[in-house]
Amino acid sequence: MTGNHKDTSITRRRALVVSGGTVAAGGLAVAGFQSAFADGTDTSTDADATASASSTSGECMTLMSSVTEGPYYLDGALVRKDITEGKAGVPLTLRLTVVDATDGCTPVKGAAVEIWHCDAWGYYSGYTTANPGGSAPAESEEGDSADDNTYLRGYQIAHANGVVKFETIFPGWYTPRTCHIHVKVHTGGEKEDGTYEGGKVNYTGQLFFDDTIAEEIFTLDPYAKHTGSYTVLADDMVYDGGGASSGLLTLKAVHKKDPSKGYKGSLTLGIDPDAENTGAGSGGGGTPPSGAPTGAPPTDSASPSASASS
């Protein structure tokens, strides 16, 4: 992975789609890949600590701004904690807490949190022929037993504390995006036939990773087999630099001296349960270098070959 930008003086435009469909665009100076990582922020705060529903000042956190769902969304993800399906990569335990930011940050019981992300080489299930940019082996060369229609996608339903947990892998990347995980929060529906049906989408967002940690992960196998120019946080078209309120995860290494052992990530999502924002059709999500995804989505993404569990 070269990871170096050719011209550090270039200014790029990025778009952030906020709740209600308003688009805010602005200029951003592009920093060199190596220098951006050198200035990375240490986010190794304890991710296992019980998530607080309020800030240290006692005031409720602000609402999370909804952003585009991107080009790789599929309906019918399975309700399950472990979404890996045998995909190779650095383990990631993800803990997300859903709170009502309009009501003192009280936990949202029954909220269904849906996530999806690419594998270590930048491929999404349902779109396994879409070019991730740079140079990477074909997704089929990984040799795993994952279902090409369902891997690295899933739902979890929050209990009374508003918390959900997922077992997954640290995602890879695709051009022109930084490393990220997509997320939707649904309310008002119910588990049915192994997936989540009905209700509405209150929040559509993306979760992001500290550049310094991402750089270290991408030197490991199987990530290192995907080479090319990686986009840092400061140069991403969706992340707006707002830290946790913009989706930046708090990360803690399972073993400080061996990143291959995995990470624990956490974040509190402050939503409005009365709002609706699917993110569908929104701009700013990023597409592969060749344009729209070339892999056709499956007709039934909740394949029987991938087991569902609560």
Please describe what this structure looks like.
By secondary structure, this protein is mainly beta. 4% of the residues lie in helices and 27% in strands. The strands form 3 sheets. Strands 3, 4, 7, 10 and 11 form a 5-stranded mixed sheet that branches.
Share of β-strand residues: 25-35%
Q: In sequence order, what are the helices and strands, one letter per element?
A: EEHEEEEEEEHEE
* Assembly status: single chain
Average pLDDT number: 78
Which of globular, elongated, flat, extended, rod-shaped describes the shape?
A: globular
Helicity level: under 10%
Round the Cα radius of gyration to an integer and report it: 18 Å
Quickly count the helices.
2
C-alpha end-to-end distance: 38 Å
Question: How is the main sheet built?
Answer: 5 strands, mixed
Unreliable stretches: 1-58, 288-307
Number of extended strands: 11
Q: Assign the structural class, choosing from mainly alpha, mainly beta, alpha/beta, alpha+beta, or little secondary structure.
A: mainly beta
Short description:
The protein is 4% helix and 27% strand. With 310 residues, the chain is mainly beta.
Write the layout of secondary structure elements.
Elements: E1 11-17, E2 23-29, H1 33-38, E3 91-100, E4 106-107, E5 112-116, E6 153-157, E7 163-169, E8 180-192, E9 195-208, H2 211-217, E10 250-253, E11 263-271
Parallel strand pairs: 3-11
Antiparallel strand pairs: 1-2, 3-4, 3-7, 5-6, 5-8, 8-9, 10-11
